[in-house]
Amino acid sequence: MSTASLEIALLKEFNNLMEEKYWDFLSMEWPYIKPKKYHRTDLRAVPNIDEVKKLLLKRLGPIPVFFFLTVIFPTKNYPGPYRPLEKGLLLLYHLVKGCSLEDMRRFITPSTFNDILSSFYKKDKGVNNALEDLISKKLHNMFSNI
């Protein structure tokens, strides 16, 4: 197969992927999840969040982080008095780096982070796991086999 025909095939496959609208998240606004409970405390910034952002940008790049924060993370409401997007960044950092709860102490208390982890992985009783279904669908449809 010549280089020109390979480029044409790749461009065609790319255009097909873009037409299917699975990559629409790139133009999405930041999601807003209305809290189910009223918290008396104001939202706080996570200490050392710049360290988290630098590692995620270096290891993953901006598109996977944006995808996680706009498509996967907002499927649930997460406890704690911290900014929602920063909770998402901490969760992704934990997944990428493989830190223990104790390692995450320099950002937030282990008990709060455990609550966030539990909320993320918790399956709703009697209902299909929406997060698992969403991830399976996205992985199946967002990429090409070419």
- The H-and-E topology, N to C, reads as HHHHHH
In angstroms, what separates the terminal alpha carbons?
A: 13 Å
Indicate how many domains the architecture comprises.
Answer: 1
Class from helix and strand fractions: mainly alpha
Provide a count of the helices.
6
User: What would the average pLDDT be, to the nearest integer?
Assistant: 80
User: What is the rounded Rg?
Assistant: 18 Å
Described by the principal axes of the CA atoms, the overall outline is elongated
Tell me what portion of residues adopts beta-strand conformation: under 5%
Low-confidence stretches: none
Major β-sheet profile: none
The total beta strand count reads: 0
Please bin the fraction of helical residues. Answer: 40-55%
